[in-house]
Each structure stands twice: as structure tokens, then as C-alpha cells.
Amino acid sequence: MASLTGVRGLLAGAVIAAAAFFVAPLAAFAHGGVMLEQDECVLRIGPNTMHFIGYQRSGEEAEFCEDIAKTGPTVIALTAVSPDLRDMAIGIRIVKDVGEEKEKTNLNAVTVAYIEPKVYRNGIMTFEHDFKDAGRYVGIVTVRDDLGNEWVSRFPFSVGLYTFWGLIEYILYAVGFFSLLGLMWWMLRAGAKKKTQPGDAIA
């Protein structure tokens, strides 16, 4: 019984380690100001935080917080986490990723969508944009208070591109999953062998 209890403890530890393994790549590969925390995309902007989520209406409504799988109509929602944001003007601009220097030279030319800053008393800003071209983009979220203070957060993302980091992420998931299965199988076999030993049976 002692050996079986030990195996169960090791299995529990393996499950916890695997969970940490699966969560870590998401945070590591998050872009710019967007991070994945407890299954929610979090956008940090100055001292405040917002939940960021997007999904596409066509086909399966797969949610995303980084790269968009394909072109087409896309709904993006920003939800204020910090209470102070409900009294601030929130705006967003989506631009083509041409580099910050070229972007500053002619901002309007590279802008594909723009929502002017305004106050959302319910703390939720939602808009829809039809991404017609695959490519790399940058989301620029602006928050402004009534004193004129302004905070900006940028997060790059891609639309309709098969990214290298996306491939690496899936490979890491697969390696972690099969490693966990192998470890559990080995522990169960080791526990079964110890349980059938005469010494364990007498104990």
C-alpha cells in the first residue's frame, strides 16, 4: 500500500508539472502587451489591465488573443479589468506592420481600422473588422483620462499566416502530452510490479 500511495503522489506531481508545462508556452509566446493568464488574454496598458478577446464568425467561432487563423470578418472586444478604465476614453487602431518609423511617417496610409477613444461606462469596447488581406498587423490601444494623461499599448499579430512560433508551440504541446502519457504508463507499471512483490503483500 505504501508503494501504491507513493506512485499516486508521483502521478499527481506529474499532472501538476504537465499543467505548468502547457501554460508556460502560452505566456512565453504572447505578443507585445498581450499575455495569457488563467485562460484569459490580458492586455497591460500603463498601470491598468484589460481583457482582450477576438473571434471570427465564419466557420467555427475559434477565439484568439494573438494570431488570427484566416482572413475575414473578425470581432474584437476589450473589457476593462481595472475600475479606473471605466472613466477613461478607450480607443484602438489597427495598422499594417511596416515598422514604427514608417508608421510614424504616414499613419493614415497604414491604418486599416480605427475606433476613436471614448468612454465606455460598462467597461466593454467591441468592434468588428473585415481583414481582407493576410499579413502582419499591430494593434494600438490608447487610454486617456480627463486630465490628458495617455497610455498606449501595442501588440503585433498576424492574419492568415502559418507562423514559425505557432508551429513550435504545437510541437511543444505534442512533446509534453506524449511525455506525460509515457511517464504515467511507466509509473503505473512500476507500482503494479511493487504491489505484487511478496514483501509488499506481507506489509
Task: Work out the helix count.
Answer: 5
Top CATH class of the largest domain: Mainly Beta
Low-confidence stretches: 1-5, 14-32
Would you tell me the structural class of the helices and strands?
Answer: alpha+beta
**General shape:** elongated
* Helix and strand element order: HEEEEEEHHEEEEHH
CATH superfamily of the largest domain: Macroglobulin (MG2) domain
In round numbers, the mean pLDDT is 76
Do you know the CATH topology of the largest domain? Immunoglobulin-like
Q: Please give the CATH architecture of the largest domain.
A: Sandwich
Biggest pleated sheet: 6 strands, antiparallel
Name some characteristics of this structure.
203 residues; alpha+beta; Immunoglobulin-like; 2 domains; six-stranded antiparallel beta sheet; four-stranded antiparallel beta sheet; 5 helices
Structure description:
With 203 residues, the protein is an alpha+beta fold. It has two domains: 2-21 and 167-202; 32-160, Macroglobulin (MG2) domain (Immunoglobulin-like, Sandwich), CATH 2.60.40. The chain is built from five helices and ten strands. It has helices spanning 2-28, 100-105, 107-110, 164-195, 198-202; strands spanning 34-37, 40-45, 48-56, 63-64, 72-80, 89-96, 111-119, 124-131, 135-144, 150-159. The strands form two sheets. Strands 1, 2, 3, 4, 5 and 8 form a six-stranded antiparallel β-sheet that branches. Strands 7-6-9-10 form a four-stranded antiparallel β-sheet. A hairpin with a 5-residue loop joins β9 and β10. α1 packs antiparallel against α4. The longest helix is centred in the C-terminal third of the chain and has 32 residues, at 164-195.
